[in-house]
User: What shape does this take?
Amino acid sequence: MVKKSPSAPSGTATTGPVAAYPRTRMRRNRADDWTRRMVAENVLTPADFIWPVFVHDGASPVAIDSMPGVERQTVESLVAAVGEAKSLGIPAIAIFPATETALRTDDGREAYNPDNLVCRSVRAVKSAHPDIGVMCDVALDPFTDHGHDGLVRDGKIINDETVEALIKQALVQADAGCDIIAPSDMMDGRIGAIRDALEGANHKNVRIMAYAAKYSSAFYGPFRDALGSSGHLKGDKRTYQMDPANGDEALREVALDIAEGADMLIVKPGMAYLDIVHRVKTEFGLPTFAYQVSGEYAMLKAAALNGWLDDERVMMESLMAFKRAGADGVLTYFAVAAATILNDGSNGTKK
Ligand code: PBG
Assistant: This one.
């Protein structure tokens, strides 16, 4: 398997003196495939990908209309799909549950039922494939009847009570065997609270990958379809997710999460926020991941299905952009398709 190369954000190298044309001809190094490969500054490997997957309690997998090629898996089909991902060299998956309407409540208590769909999926995946990393979101939205990530009182999302529920959710997931807890709720103070609870429960090696800079984005639309939460969401998430207008604020969010014990960071969405990926990696140097979200996947797929874009090439180019921006990896619905191409011999820079 190809080893992952260390990636430095482009733009950190200083440009030295440059000889004038024709002594410098930038096209010399681009003239042949071998030289292009030799000077490539970034590479993609299957180890760069975390594969987000959807699971439901139905009898068979169901297609998601707004995410062509993505399905809500059954626990059984998920286990098989994860085996394939593992053999392609993908290091980790992230499990998202489509919770039945009957189990969604005002307080989202199904989130910390130790036998909920997420926990059952984690146990099934880890017992079949102990050596692939399993990541779980911490947020109440798959479980609330109002579709918010937190508890609502008098029309407001209440922070501190929500954190108490998130702690319980993180603990049942860690008990089920989840390796990486990924709080995506954007409540204040939840990273420290979850870290302390994990330490207290002897889950010392359970990692926290914080959705540290998560924006209030319209690019999440297809994901909410996939979870069946679009119909549920009342209002929007702007009182807890970030304003797309802000960059400096993302650095404050990240600094706080690091101070509270985050092991790894996520910037989300991806393509429209590459400046944030670059700033976060450059400023803090922690393992930093970009989430190429459902809407990004959907727009590339839709154009490809119309014959307007080349599916494979835009997929690889968009993934490479994250590496160039400084990301250590990407959460992407393209993980299996991209890893398949990389295993077929392309280094991801060729096309
Ligand atoms: C839930 C969550 C969301 C996503 C990941 N976790 C949606 C949201 O915040 O509304 C979006 C992922 C995607 O669009 O692919 N907290």
In short: The radius of gyration is 21 Å.
